[in-house]
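--- STAGE predict ---
source: upstream dedup step, 1 unique chain passed
mode: sequence only
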Amino acid sequence: MSEMKKITIFFIFLSLLMVATAIPMPYPVYGKVTILDKAYEGIDVKITNKATNEVITVNTDKEGFYTFDLGNLQQEYTSRDVIRIEVSDRDVKEFIVGTAGGHREDFDIKDKEAVVKIYSVPTTVKVLVAALIVGFIWLVIYWIKRDKARGKKMLDTFGKKVTSKKK
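--- STAGE serialize ---
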């Protein structure tokens, strides 16, 4: 074999090796989350690679299933990394990445406190919604009083023009 062919084969092999090591192997992590034996859509499932501290959050679908591929992590995973899966503070499971396949981890949550924590709307959101509703009602009342005070013609519910009565 000529020297040029040897160099060409070497660089082809080196290129293939670089490509093979640059693409992480797929390793699906999946499972089902049920709360009091019912599946719900949109439950956060937090997946943490404890070796790199990288955290990814995925949501369950309408049947309660979640799925994530460790190959999509920004920092590559290795076999023997410990992966932590959390649905709530109390519902946590860990596993060690193996050399084959993937990993399934199901959660069947029975703890009512965990259910409340998963589904409770933060107080700040409740206060904000209440403030928006009160503000809207105040604005409508203001417009009605302003128009009545000016004696403007308003439309009734059927589209007929009516004149507001002055007291």
